[in-house]
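Hey L., structure's done. Input below.
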Amino acid sequence: MPTLSGPEQLAEWQADALDPRPRAASGWPALDGLLRKQSFGPGQLVFLGGRMHTRKTAVALNLCVNMLRAGVPVGFVGLDEAPFMYVAKLASVMTGTSHIVLDEEWALPTGFGSSADYLALTDKFSLFTQNRPSLDDLAAWLEMEAVRSERPRVVFIDYLSLLVRGQYDGKDTARIPRLAEDLKMWANRHQLCVIALHQVGRTDDSAIRRYHGSTPLTPEQLMFGGEQAADIILSTYRPALDPEGNMSLEEAMSQGMDQAEWQAKSDRVAAFKHDTMLQLIKNRPGVELNPQGIRLRSVGASQKMEVVP
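Output:
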């Protein structure tokens, strides 16, 4: 019978408290402090959502480097960019140097190149690339990594919508939720944490105004994006993307803004020019949320990010 008695219920709770399975912290205390057990756990499905140009991939690669430095084996399913771009951007996070500069210096002795530092840090990092992989394809990759090196404990997917179609054919409003449900079961079955990136559409929850990625994201803006299956939802926005704050004074006044309003928006864009806000808008295993977000600042022109107090 699928019924737990009182003693069995307490035994379940105790088993969780004493669970020896390793977990993975984000490496950012401002985020970890809000998570249950200050970390991501096996079987969890985490969404990292946001509008385009809100640096979701950069956030994911920073989390990868933080976890690798903590000794956590990480897998990255790179479906949105060419493999060499993920490598270049990962190297940028590691070094705090622009990946464009690293590209230019690749063949020079002073460049990052194929240095031992990169090879040492990526000893537990596996980059998977395949067109429209199925969950069975990903399972086979996990088993191969278990033989080759070490099985990943955290798997990043960039992006969720670029996974297999086939049995998930149909409009994305129906396909993505079904895919997310199966991905949640897949994470449970393989006892790992899956962090799936998800692109948010161009309209807000009222479906009237354009959403530019410059204001905090709401759970409604992830509707039909598989958000119900996720245990945790992280999201990104960048105040510097505010279209009104990027207007000239003349253009703003022609659209009805006064100078003081334009100046305030323009100043905010300048103040947040290098910043990305990382929200926690769903936290099923925990309690606390952070709808306004943790402020992450890019280091120079690199992909590396640091928390702004």
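The radius of gyration is 21 Å. Residues 45 and 194 are 5 Å apart (CA to CA).

-- N.
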